[in-house]
Each structure stands twice: as C-alpha cells, then as structure tokens.
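Field: COMPLEX_INPUT
Field: COMPONENT_COUNT = two
Field: RESIDUE_TOTAL = 862
Field: MODE = joint
Values follow.
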Amino acid sequence: MKSGSLGGYIVRRLVQTVPVVIGVVIVNFMLLQLAPGDLATVLAGEAGGAPKEYIDQLRARFGQDQPVYVQLFNYLRNLIALDLGFSFRQGAPVLDLLLQRLWPTLLLMVCTLILSLGSGILMGLLAALWVRTWKDNAISVAAILVYATPLFWVGLMLILVFSIWLDWFPTSGMENVVAFHEGWDRVFDIAHHLVLPTVTLSLFYLALYARLMRASMLEQRGLDYVVTARAKGQTERRITTRHVFRNALLPVVTMAGVQTGSLLGGSVVVESIFAWPGLGQLAFQSLFARDYNLLLGIFFMSAVLVVIVNLIVDIVYVFLDPRIRIG
Amino acid sequence: MRIVGYLATAVISVGLGLAGTGFGGGVALAQKRGGTLVQITQPEPPTLGSYISTASPVGQVAAKIYDGLFEYGFDLKPAPSLAQSWTVADDGKTITFRLRPGVKFHDGKPFTSADVQFSVMEVLKKVHPRGINTFAEVTAVETPDPMTAVFRLAKPAPYIMAALSGYESPMLPKHVFEQGDIQTHQNANNPVGTGPFKFVEWRRGEFVRLDRNADYWKPGLPYLDRVVVRFIADNATRAAALEKGDAHVAGLGSVPYNDVKRLERLPNIQIETRGSEMLSPVVELMFNTRKPPFDNPKVRQAISYAIDRQFVIDNIWFGFGKPATGPTSSNFAPAGLYSANVANYNVPDGVERANRLLDEAGFPRKADGTRFEIVHDITPYGEEWRRFGEYTQQALARIGIRASTRYEDVATWLKRTYTDYDFDMTSNWLFNLADPVLGVHRAIHSRFIRQGTVFVNGARWGDPRADELMDMATVETDAAKRSAQYAEVQKIVADAAPLAWVLEVRFPTVIDKRYRDVIVSPLNIFSNFDRAWRD
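Field: COMPLEX_OUTPUT
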C-alpha cells in the first residue's frame, strides 16, 4: 500500500459519507415529527402553566408555525454551512452545546475502548492458551456473567461498594465541586472521577471481546500456516505472538468498530448514573423536552463520529494484516 | 393611607429572629462563616432566567442570585427585602414601596426604583409565565425618586403582595437587561442580581457555581462561601451522593420518597418537612366533565368517596402529606382563605356511599360486576404517580369501575390533557402558590378553560356563582370579606367535585446535618440560603 493512495482513500471515503449523513438527518427529522407534543408545550408545562398568548409567541419564535417541509429545507440549508441552529430550551447555539459536551463523552469512550479492548484481548488470549483448563473456565464464566448483567446495576453496585463502603472513589460527577482543583491536580481529580464510569462501561464490552478473542485464537491455531510454522521449527511462543495473535485480532478490531455506535448508546446509561456531563445525557434530556434542534445536532454528530471510527478501523486493518489493500 | 407595614429596623434583627426558628428546635447557635454547600437540583435547568421561566429547577438556582421586594416567613406575611417599607392606599389601587438605599448589583451599579419599574413593566408583566396574570392590573410603575416606586393599579390586586419574592418576581438590573431582546437575552445565563450569591460559572451537565457576594446588603451575610448546584440524572446516584456527603441538600421531589425514608435513618442526614407553605402542591384526579360518564356529578363524587386518602399518603407518599379536603390547600388557613366546611369525601364508609351514588347515577353493575370502563391517564412526573395509578385502579375496581392506566411522556400528556381534551380521568398536581388568585382560580374558574394552555381548567368545569365569587375575591381588600367569599367558593366546588382532591404534599428536604438553617422560608429551596451555615 502506498502512502499517497491512503490520503486519496480517506478523502474518497469521506466524500462517500456525505449522502449517508444527509440521509440520516432527513430520516431523523421525519421521525421526530411523529412524536406528539412540542417544545412550546413542554416549556409551558415546566413553567407550571402559561397563558395561550405566551405559547403562541414561543411557537412563532421556534419557527414551528411553518410547514414541515419548509422547516426541513431550512434545517438542511443551515447544516451545509455547519449551522446546527439554536437550542431555545438551553438558550445557546447547538454547536456550542455539542462541543462542550463532546470531550467528556470522547474521554469516556476512548478510555473505555482502551480498557475493554486491552483487557478483553488479554483475557481471550490467556483463555485460549489455557484452553479446557479450570483457568479457561473461570475466565469464560466471568465473561458470561458480566455480559449478562445490566449496565445500570453494575454501575450502582460499583458506587455502593467502592464509593460508599470503601470510600475509594467519588459517587458521581467529573470533578470535585467543593475544591475546584487547578492544573495537574485537576487532571488527577478528573481521572479519579473517571474510574468507575469507565469500568462500568468497559465490563460489558470486555466480556464480548474476551469471548471473541478466545474463539478467534483457537480457530487460527488450527489452520495450516501454524502447522507450517511448526514444521519450520519455530517456537510455540513465537508462533503465538508473531502469527496467531495478529491474525486473531482482525475480527476483534472489526467488532470494536461496529460497537462504537452502541458504545454511544451505552454511555447514555452510564452518563446518567454517574452524572457524567456528556452527549448521552444531553440526548436523553432533549428528547423529553422535544428540543429537536439539539437532538438533530446530537444525531448528526453521532453519525459523523461512527463514520470516522469505522474509517479508522479500516485503516488499522492494513497495519495488522499487510495482505489487506484499501481502495 | 393605611399603613400595612413599616419595618426600617436593622436587617440583622430580622435575620436572627427568623434564624432562631430554623433548625435546632429554636436553640440559638453561633453561626460560622465559610464552607461550600452542594445542592442537588433535578433536572438541570434549561436556563437561569427566572424572569422568563418558572420551571422548578430554574428557581432553585436563580433565587440565590436575585432578590425580590419582599421576603416571606412561615406565616406567609411579607417582610422587607429590597423594599424597606410599603403602604397600600385605601382604595387598594396604589401601592408605594420605599426601597432600601445602598443596595448594589453584582456588577457594582446601584439598585434604584428604575430597576423596579423596568423589572415589573418591561419584563415580568410581559414575559414571565405567571407574571402576565399577577401584574395584569398594574398599569404603571412610577418613580418619583430613586428610592420610591409607586404601583398604579386598574383594580385592587391584594394577591400581588404575596408574589414579590426573589423567586416569583426577581428584580433585574435595568442597565443590563434593557438592551436587546429580553426573550433571548445573553445575560439570562450570566445573571446579575443583588442576591447573596454571585453567578460564577455554569458547566452544562455538571454544575452551576455561585460564590459569596461580599457586598451583600445584609451585613455579615451570607455565611457560606459558595453554593454549588449539581445535576445528577439518576435517582439512586442522587441518594448515594447525599449518603456519602458529596452533596448536602436536595428537595422538591428530587429524591424519591422511598429513598428519603431510607436516608432518614442515616446518622448524617436530617429530613425537613417545612417549606411547602407558599407552594402548596395538591395531588388530585381531574375529570373530563364534558364527556360521559364524568359529566355526571354523582360519578365524580363517587370516585371522590372511593379513594382512601390516608392509605395513599402512608403507602405511596411515604407519609409526606396530609389529606386534601377541597380546591384550596390548608396552608391558606393562617391567611383565612381556607375553609374545612365543605362536603367531606374522606369518610370510613366511602365505598358504600360511592356504590350508592353510582346506582343512582344510572350505572348499575353488570353481570361481571363492573359498571363501566375508563382510561386513567397518569401524570408523568415520577414513580409515585405510577403507584398512585395502580392504587386508583384497585380502589375503582371496588366500586365496579374498570380503569386501565396509560403513562406517556410529559409533552404527550400535556397535549392530550390540555389541548386535545382526549382523556377520561387523569392524575395531576397543581401548586396553589402564594394566593388562591395565583394558584387556585386557574383550575376551577371558567375563565381558565383555555384550550392549549397547560395547567389550567382542564376539567372544563365552571359555575357562574363560583366565578362571580372568585372575581369579587380577586379585588377584595377586606380580609374578612375575602375569607367569606373563598369559603363559599370551596363549598360550591367541593359539592360539584370537578376534581377529586387527594392529598397536600409536604415536600421532604434531605439535608446533611453539618449544614444549618437551610430551610428558613415557605419557599423551600427556592429561597436564597443567605442564613445557611456550615457547622
């Protein structure tokens, strides 16, 4: 693979995603139109009641007095200029809100990806090496248990044990709001707050990756090239690390790419439990408030995120397996 | 001129006088300076503009930043705040406020009568969801000098005197808010007030940080260095944060009642049940009185009889309430606006009476034991409402009514109930607020049958005599006459039973025991915490 063609490939892939993302936006827009009630009634409801004039005034301001196709057309036209609109409920431009909330979600996602992939691969590898021993069974049973446990329950139990009983970690939030640390202290403080949410979100995926890795390792070990390597006189250790391991990784990496979308979904639950100020919580709130501008913005950003992660996964393939060509 | 109140005494005496009635059973404690109080508010407020949104979370934050003309004690009587004294003319159509000199906004500019004029006429009367009604009769606010504001009214409006707290009618700086569109003003989320705490930062999804206003006009107050309002979406996590001491105060339903009961047993937690006196939430069942079978008053009365109110309080609201008797909360008793002399639906033989009424109404039991079927919509404000829906289902089954329940989200439910009127019976709760004109009329006056407006007369019931009495009470300045008018209203409405009033909720506030004098006002955590302190 030539590096020049890699740049061209990325550009081509990105161009291809534009119609996909626009399609996603249109479908989401139409779906949201189906939900009964609107932002004006929710705002009035939160206010504990308001006169009709007030509600009409709000609707006109939101542009909801116009036909749906005009609203959609306006939205798409603004989107092309990367103007995601204004969240009337939050009283701020949608893009600002999204960017504010993006990095906590990315932080949580990246840490979860590293932890779950790293330990999942390690556990799968060990289980495959110890196949059909008690250690293999222990790992497999643990993986199934974790896989089957609901996310919110794991989160609450971790809070109960590690926060309330042992007092090792804070219950929730992203930083200490009594101390308001600065500089490196703040970094450590955030890391301290990050532990429980990351572990909670990782456990599920860890189990998934561990099982996949084990199966993949066992499959690869039975293939002809392993026999050839043995015949060549290579050590078992070298066969495992140089050949089997790298080939076995491919399905796990594919799965990790596919799971990014659901990782965002899972982060809604984890962010709610741990009061983590990310996109997931924002999506949840804006859905119930019928804050469509904001919700469409979140969908748009999630779609872009998933597309980018899958692109990265495709590129990673090349480094794992030189036989794979892109383009 | 009739003098209503004149209290130019030092503020500190008011402060200490009320503080003594706070925590510690009246024992005077030496207040300490310093400390951060972490309050949990749920959900996160959409804005900090309490002049444009009366959503509960908004007030929980903004009331610490903005002062009002008055403060209120547990007796609901006005006490001086930004207004040092006031007089009401005999005809009730002129109210003169003497303002407190030397008060400064957080940006250092002085507070004057021009700010009062601007806040009332340009903001509250125009864009505040309740202010549009409250100040409807105010035709002008005159400012003869910087420390005098004169309200001119078209008709007397005694209820205004109950609606001048910093939570209900915040006083805004004219020089900040007069430029630009008030509806989308950039300072909504960067508020500048005269209150005990200054706005510092709002990190969305996390917290709002408010720091001590060192130049607060009450000398030596506030005691706390900082108030941080945190947003935690999950019920169980909120309880855990309070249990561990990560957060110190939560109220107004943000902790589920069953968790409150559990937290109450912890050594570091105290539960305060005062502080609903100016909010007065009433849980009720609202009937669609324009649609059979609920167009028949006997059917409505039957359901009113069939509900065991004490059972609901003990088992669903975990004891945090008292039985409701009619459209007006008993919190209005000190003001003389509550009457217990109404049809009593809370009787031991309620089920028999209900069955008899339904027979009379022409709904005999069929072969399978039922009379008719209805759909019971459940107001979507939390778990206890589902429990209440399940209880109601059972209670109605006893009198032969088969009720199926429906639970939708807030927007859908509001549209169904107040726009489409597509319901039989729905659970609901309305806040009676500081005066019946503000909180009670909207549910039972036929003027408030307004399609598309939420939390008004969704039952679409009205009675000419009751309407007339309420209109009279709205402008009546004589307390005894007003009291008699409301007593008659309550009797008429309770007989017709357009709603079944179930209980008055007493909000429990969960407080970390290290913090004292947190709930010292009938406005609960819509108060400003100027006297709260950390031991």
